[in-house]
Amino acid sequence: MKTITTLFIFCLFLSCSSKSDDGTQTENTSARFDLTAVKVTNASGDAPVKGDEITITMTVKNTGSSSGTVAISPKLSSSRFGDYHNVALDAVEGTLQAGETTQLTLTVGPFFKDAIKEKHYALGSGEYFFEAFELNGADDKEFEGRIFQVATSNRVLVPVIYDPTYFSKVNYNGSMKTYLEQAFTRKIELYNEGNYTEFEGGLDEMMDIEHLFYTIPTGNVSAYDAEGGLCEKAIALGGDALGLTKDWEGPVGTQGNNHGFDYLMAITPDSFGGVACGWIDVQVTGVFDFDLSIDRSQILIIHETSHLLGSPHCDQYDVEGYVMCGGEKHRKYIDHGIFVYYQRSRDMMSNKFN
Asked: Contact at 8 Å (CB) between 99 and 67?
């Protein structure tokens, strides 16, 4: 008994080692970790704006008497958006010597997934705060820099639910994200009283916005088990895919219960063209089986988004041959694949997302 007691007292002051059953060396350490401060910036070191990746810099101190490794995971909440509390971000690890203070960084966004809750989120503009940081399984809630702001920008954060068989229809071998980026940034021209203005950066340049797409393969929206038409099926499937507490919500503009996203896009291989439901900011785009070219398929996509941005069909102006009314008939489209907008359509369009 005396030998055991002496050994116990000895181990209180020194790091004792032993061997496990498999012969590997193990160490009884007394590392203790304290998160003292947090700072959030974008890649340039400035305050973040909507659509940025953010870098979370965490100042950590080992207040114990031995070295050790700490795994830190932030728990993020939004003051603006609903169902956006204690969102578990990825963990980052670091090894600190006894008494050492260091900084660990984690870069996330503008989209991320809470793997525990199976929910998807975007960093829309507004106020955010850290509920806690999990350090080796225990929450640390006392630190500086808890709250940070994400300022507004011209970026539009769009979740895209899609059926991967769409690509076999249009004979495209890339990703959905790349496909959409190409559609929204391909050269367009704006027609006004006999003059054409070129926009090499496409619809995004013309509208002075930047679409950022978060793509989720889901299967065909038209086959989803929900009542109603394509838009109703899309909001139900979108809500399920994103892990919303209920269906994707309207009305117009960025809503508080859509996890920070702006409008919802669904892509299907069905042959019907497309439909936009502006009252809930949802567009569903398919194909035309009689013209499965990528040009025609992409013009359908930006046509439906243009509806969400406020443009009606321009045939009400007794014109055709433009993106909002038979754009595939325009000579610039036929000869060069250029999408042409009519000025009066552009005048009706605006970025209503914040």
From this structure: no
